[in-house]
Specification:
Chain A: One of its GO terms (biological process) is cytochrome complex assembly. Chain A: It is a multi-pass membrane protein. The complex is a heterodimer of chains A (396) and B (548). With 396 residues, chain A is mainly alpha-helical. Helix content of chain A is 68%, strand content 5%. Chain A is built from 11 helices and 5 strands, in the order ααααααβββββααααα. In chain A, the strands form 2 sheets. Chain A has a 3-stranded antiparallel β-sheet, with no helix packed on it. In chain A, strands 3-5 form a two-stranded parallel ribbon. Chain B is of the alpha+beta class and 548 residues long. Chain B folds into 4 domains: 113 residues; 99 residues, TATA-Binding Protein; 123 residues, no CATH class; 110 residues, no CATH class. Chain B is built from 11 helices and 24 strands. In chain B, strands 4-5-22-23-3-24 form a 6-stranded antiparallel β-sheet. In chain B, strands 6, 11, 12, 13 and 21 form a 5-stranded antiparallel β-sheet that branches. Chain B has a 5-stranded antiparallel β-sheet with strand order 14-15-18-19-20, with no helix packed on it. In chain B, a hairpin with a 2-residue loop joins β19 and β20. In chain B, α3 runs antiparallel to α5, α5 runs antiparallel to α8 and α7 crosses α11. Chain B is elongated, with a radius of gyration of 39 Å. Classes of the chains: A mainly alpha (396), B alpha+beta (548). At the A-B interface, α9 and α10 of A face α3, α4, α9, β9 and β12 of B. Bound molecules: protoporphyrin IX containing FE. Protoporphyrin IX containing FE (HEM) sits at the interface of chains B and A.
């Protein structure tokens, strides 16, 4: 067996282990007071499986490094997988400090979404372009991911806080926004589902479209609802696009990405609708009773604590190391490139969070919302800025 | 207003909320920290007298209060955040792609993004991060940082230095962590002390009153990190001065005479010996799939340079002696340094023409036997060539980078010889009848169709061009210093917490209270460990629910 299959096998194993671990954490949360022992046992199994899963991911990481000759953090697939690894790592650390198994109930599945999402991007081992050939790449990217992984825990704690505390007996702005957050998670699942399905069928439709005087060929892996702007379908016997991607959507391969977004929204909406039909209430309302035994102030504390730990790490990796590398590679440590600006936005945001926490009245629910928005900004930087507002760091 | 003397005898400055020594709430000042109608005391600044809360008469007081308010600080941060986001909606002017219809912003934004692009451009958002208003926001943050830090640091520092172990009962009972124990023995107190010491608490005792304190230094973290930020802002201001910052971009052609490096006052010259572009091998098994997918992937951009220092000029006007001082390869991620300058590999242009050799033959000659030849040096094309066999060729028009513009008229896209084309006027030997020929790469047009002689390209030489950035930036150490201080400050403030535990003896027992500036979970653990083996009641968390 070659090393690369060992590598992807290890990643796959980790993924499955996280899934099983989630179930055990779930069992631990459904605390039947009468059976304290069962409770702690399933918690122990859960965290052990998580740690073995992390080892699996580390094996994936090291073997892939050996194969490619450089640390696997240089494209969208590699970076997001690594981010997933950091999230699990952060979860384990926080777990051992606070002994909170219920965090795993959310941290693990969301990490799984991230890893699965990552594998929808090209997974080929690619060589490094000259600008990435620097040790500072590794130092910068790994520190950023670690910081984001820790900030992710505050998102998890915040989301759980909201699900627990928001009054679900009446419909309000809060319940709607909470459902929106949950819906977005479901859209990601929809994206992963629909992409994998058509990948398995080996669906392919090629288009040609003009761009800056050249003709570019692009391959759709999903049936084209939206074709490229001014594009023509080359492949025969596949679905014709229903409409064209509008011209103001810029960037490389805008049409294909737009089409993917449409598919994800459709699938996600159907998925969400089906769940709602089955459970007959808001998803937030359905989860809420599970959290009956959680202490809200502990969730708040964990959320705040992860920001205080994550903020310095993020600053170091996302701003300082980034600047050092940019100075060496391009001769300018700061260039107002979209990716950099969004790192700055993230930093400003968490700085604002920390200052708001200084005053009374911003603890608890408001903090929880902020933590959710903060992670939204991180994901925006990773996904939208990379894929749409392409700059120097554009990966995919 | 006068200084306030507390019951305990300590004299506090005007505006004090909690006595610096004993912590007793000072009547009439409780509104300053929002303690009215609250059970718990606001301990953020230990109830010290802050200028911003105390004086509010003169305009200076008002400005001071304004900038020291955290609320204002947060607003400034949020405004900067939103403004920064707006600047990424469309590319900034410097990131307009080279293959755009036009790099002129007044055309580009509207053409590419329609009405929104036009608005973006007209509001000046295409240069948002250097706009005056963005800089003003950043400057206001800087002012706010200085003032808020001074407002709090000095009083807090003094208060923590003056604090006494003996605290007023109302101070203890209004802490978030609090407990009363009716009966406590001396052994228990001693065990408590030992346990606290084990956890690295520093202990101060006064008449049985006890203060256990650790990690006070972490309270200074925010002020340290704010100083770091201020240094960074100062560095950014200084960088505007030429002493601190210089940057020039030079195009250097391969194998040409050294050219002077702009911005060095003629002191340094640079030569490009070779420009190298390498790509990753397709044969490499590891990368086969990726290269098949994405096409060639470059692996190296490199310029082999020589830098010369110019010596004294012997005679005014004569060429200076050049002495090589650096022979190095500049690559991406590996700049070269000389004197105070750093040279970066920033761009390249492949295959410019160095020279072209033309031959003249008879139009009717299918063998195209050369009657005469001449060579045009594209660095210095001559207006006219007089050839050995009597031909005379006049260069009527020269297009270094030929293309047909929208109206079908020949034009030059750039001034670089990337696709040279000429209009030659050829005078055959002993003849005054001129023939006009248009010659370019792969083109030879005879405008009249009656020419007897034809021109053809016999030979050419090419070179690559390197785009190099030459710069120095003396503000870097200052930025580095600021960043380092910032990091020290945040780590100091975030990874340690200032924890205090007070014990107040009562008739037979004690009152206990605890405070930390963050991580209440941690201090509770500390207290649990400290009272282990004693009957002292664990503190209760009195956090008020309205703080949610
Ligand atoms: C981007 C700019 C800023 C950054 C990155 C920053 C960073 C920080 C950090 C990390 C802390 C520590 C927070 C904690 O320990 O929970 C802090 C505290 C603080 N900051 Fe800032 N700050 C910034 C701007 C400002 C501004 C403009 C003000 C003006 C009002 C301000 C006022 C304060 C105050 C009052 C504290 C609390 C000090 C204490 O607890 O003793 N900050 N800042």
């Amino acid at each position: 067996m070659d090393l690369l299959s060992v590598s992807s096998g290890a990643l796959y194993t980790a993924f499955i282990l996280y899934l099983i671990a989630t179930l055990f954490f779930g069992a631990a949360v459904r605390d039947k007071r009468t059976d304290k022992k069962l409770h702690t046992t399933s918690e122990k199994i859960g965290i052990t499986l998580t740690m073995i899963g992390l080892v699996g991911q580390i094996i994936y990481f090291i073997t892939r490094w050996i194969v490619s000759g450089h640390a696997p953090v240089s494209n969208m697939f590699e970076f997001m997988t690594f981010l997933g690894m950091c999230m699990i790592f952060a979860f384990i650390i926080i777990y051992f400090y606070y002994r909170l198994s219920f965090l795993g109930l959310f941290a693990l599945p969301i990490t799984m979404i991230i890893i699965a999402y990552a594998s929808m991007f090209p997974t080929d081992v690619a060589p490094l372009v000259p600008s990435l050939q620097s040790h500072w790449l590794y130092i910068h990217v790994t520190t950023v991911a670690l910081g984001q992984g820790i900030l992710f825990i505050s998102f998890v704690a915040g989301l759980m806080y909201l699900i627990k505390e928001i009054d679900q007996t009446v419909k309000s702005k809060k319940t709607i926004w909470l459902e929106v957050v949950i819906y977005i998670l479901v859209v990601f699942i929809g994206f992963i589902g629909i992409t994998s399905a058509f990948n398995m069928m080996n669906y392919n439709a090629a288009f040609e479209y003009p761009s800056g005087g050249n003709t570019i060929t692009t391959e759709y892996r999903l049936p084209a609802v939206a074709g490229p702007n001014e594009g023509t379908l080359v492949t025969e016997g596949v679905m014709n696009p229903w409409f064209e991607t509008p011209g103001w959507l810029q960037g490389e391969d805008a049409g294909r990405k737009f089409n993917t977004v449409i598919w994800s929204l459709i699938t996600g909406t159907i998925l969400y609708g089906v769940v709602r039909l089955i459970i007959r209430k808001r998803i937030g309302a359905a989860i809420q009773p599970l959290f009956r035994n959680l202490k809200a102030d502990l969730l708040d504390e964990v959320g705040y604590r992860s920001v205080t730990i994550g903020f310095p790490v993020f600053t170091l990796g996302g701003l300082i190391f980034a600047a050092i590398w940019a100075q060496i590679a391009w001769g300018r440590f700061w260039g107002w490139d979209p990716k950099e600006v969004w790192a700055l936005v993230t930093w400003f945001f968490y700085a604002a969070y920390l200052h708001l926490r200084l005053s009374r009245g911003w603890h608890g629910e408001k903090s929880a919302w902020l933590a959710v928005v903060g992670f939204g900004i991180i994901m925006f930087n990773l996904i939208v800025v990379n894929l749409v507002l392409a700059g120097l760091h554009s990966y995919a | 207003m006068r200084e306030i003397k507390c019951e305990c005898g300590h004299v506090n400055p005007v505006g004090t909320v909690l006595c610096e020594a004993c912590g007793r709430p000072i009547e009439g000042n409780q509104h300053l920290d929002g303690n009215n109608n609250k059970k718990l005391l606001n301990m953020r600044y230990d109830g010290t007298a802050r200028r911003s809360q105390t004086y509010n008469k003169s305009i200076i007081d008002k400005i001071w209060s304004f900038f020291s308010s955290v609320k204002v600080g947060v607003w400034l941060i949020v405004i900067a955040l939103v403004a920064s986001m707006v600047g990424t909606i469309f590319p900034q002017e410097m990131y307009i792609p080279a293959n755009a219809i036009s790099r002129n912003p007044s055309i580009y934004y509207e053409d590419q993004y329609g009405i929104f692009g036009l608005i973006f451009y007209q509001l000046g958002f295409h240069n948002l991060y250097t706009s005056w208003w963005y800089l003003v926001i950043i400057a206001l943050i800087g002012i706010s940082l200085v003032i808020c830090s001074l407002d709090r640091f000095i009083p807090l520092f003094k208060a923590l230095r003056h604090q006494k172990a003996k605290k007023h009962i109302s101070f203890l009972s209004r802490q978030r962590l609090y407990s009363e124990t009716k009966v406590v023995s001396n052994e228990e107190i001693n065990l408590l002390k030992t346990n606290l010491k084990k956890q690295r608490f520093k202990i101060k005792v006064e008449n049985g009153h006890l203060l256990a304190e650790k990690n006070r230094f972490s309270r200074w973290g925010p002020y340290v990190n704010h100083i770091g930020l201020i240094i960074i802002l100062l560095a950014a201001i200084l960088r505007v001065l030429p002493f601190f910052y210089m940057e020039e971009y030079v195009w250097v052609r391969e194998e040409q005479k050294p050219i002077v490096i702009p911005g060095t006052k003629g002191q340094y010259y640079i030569e490009n010996k070779d420009f190298i572009l390498e790509t990753h091998s397709e044969e490499d098994d590891r990368f086969e799939a990726a290269i098949a997918q994405e096409g060639m992937i470059p692996s190296n951009f490199q310029t082999d340079i020589v830098v010369y220092q110019s010596g004294e000029k012997s005679v005014p006007g004569a060429e200076a002696e050049l002495e090589p001082i650096l022979d190095d390869s500049v690559r991406m991620n590996k700049p070269a340094k000389f004197d105070k300058y750093t040279v970066y590999q920033s761009g390249y242009q492949l295959n410019e023409f160095t020279s072209m050799t033309f031959k003249i033959h008879e139009t009717s000659d299918s063998e195209e036997v050369a009657l005469d030849t001449f060579t045009v040096d594209l660095a210095a094309p001559e207006p006219e060539y007089n050839l050995e066999n009597g031909f005379r060729v006049v260069v009527d028009k020269y297009y270094p980078d030929y293309y047909l513009d929208n109206n079908g008229i020949p034009a030059s896209e750039t001034n670089f010889p990337r696709n040279p084309a000429y209009v030659f006027i050829v005078y055959p030997p002993n003849s005054d009848v001129a023939e006009v020929s248009f010659v370019g790469i792969g083109r030879n047009i005879d405008a009249t169709g009656e020419n007897n002689y034809k021109l053809g390209i016999e030979d050419f030489e090419m070179h690559d061009v390197s785009g190099l950035t030459v710069k120095y930036d003396r503000s870097l150490p200052l930025f580095g210093l600021g960043a380092a201080i910032f990091m020290i400050g945040v780590i100091q403030g975030m990874y340690w917490q200032h924890r205090r535990i007070w014990i107040h003896p009562t008739e037979n027992g004690i009152l206990m209270a605890g405070h930390t500036n963050k991580n209440w979970f941690g201090i509770k653990k500390d207290i649990e460990n400290a009272i282990e083996g004693t009957n002292i009641t664990m503190v209760e968390d009195q956090q008020e629910l309205d703080e949610k």
